[in-house]
Amino acid sequence: MKNFASLIQNRRSTRRFTEQLLSPEQVASILRAALMAPSSKHKNPWQFVVVEDKEMLSQLSHCKPHGATFLAGCALAVVVLANVMESDVWIEDASIAAIYMQLQAEDLGLGSCWCQIRNRQDADGQDAAQYVRSLLHIPYQLEVLSVIGFGYKARPNTPLDEEQLLWEKVHLGHYQLPSDTTNTEV
Ligand SMILES: Cc1cc2nc3c(=O)[nH]c(=O)nc-3n(C[C@H](O)[C@H](O)[C@H](O)COP(=O)(O)O)c2cc1C
User: Fold this and answer.
1) Does the pTM exceed 0.70?
2) How far apart are the C-alpha atoms of 146 and 37, rounded to whole Å?
3) From the CB of 62, is ligand 1 less than 6 Å away?
């Protein structure tokens, strides 16, 4: 296991994967991370659909015209769902579970990428969430947040560049307008 600082620096979106399948232990480890994610009032409003079937992965890759193609080449996709009746902050809860899975994958030396579904349309202008719902028989009360694709990285990630971090987004003590040059020394 890497230390956390290097884990988050090395986690980059992976959209090209080898053909190698994940072991049942690796899949379980990724799902375990999701189930360990914190949620508001501990309501755990999320649900996860695990997809490893190549034909289904290919169909998922058509859920929207851009940014989903990589799903066809991954070994595993986890569809992240949440019950909107169970939590008013389901987006936050489900997003945290999703990033937990991505960080766990990185820790296992695997690649992953988020495919946004909520608020996206398929090629016919129809709701991408509805496309995914029909494909996987997901009941209407469950919203589809995203599909996270996982697999062995086809090439190593380029770690995030420390020099490129947007430290100007961090405000010390009080919010500072970009023009406010007083008190900007860290
Ligand atoms: C909420 C969210 C939605 C995203 N949606 C997509 C997507 O639909 N397709 C895709 O290829 N990448 C998607 N990404 C990955 C981002 O493009 C990526 O995280 C960003 O460009 C930063 O690159 P990095 O992950 O390599 O650091 C998404 C990431 C987030 C957090």
Assistant:
1) yes
2) 16
3) no
User: How do 76-83 and 142-151 pair as beta strands?
Assistant: antiparallel
Evaluate: CB of 48 within 6 angstroms of ligand 1.
Answer: no
pLDDT (tens digit, 9 = 90+) per residue, 31-49?
999 999 999 999 999 999 9
For 10, 68, 123, 146, 156, the CA distances from 62, given in Å and listed in that order, are: 29, 7, 8, 14, 26
Residue 90 makes CB contacts below 8 A (sequence gap 6+) with 45, 46, 82, 83, 84, 143, 145
Pairing of strands 46-51, 111-116: unpaired
pLDDT digits over 173-182, tens only? 999 988 765 5
Nearest alpha carbon to residue 60 among 141, 139, 138: 138
pLDDT one-digit tens code per residue, 65-78: 999 999 999 999 99
Domains recognised in the chain with CATH numbers = 4-159 (3.40.109.10)
Task: Kindly state the tokens that stand for 111.
Answer: 């690649």
Pocket test residue of 9, 13, 16, 102 for ligand 1, highest count of atoms within 8 A of CB: 13
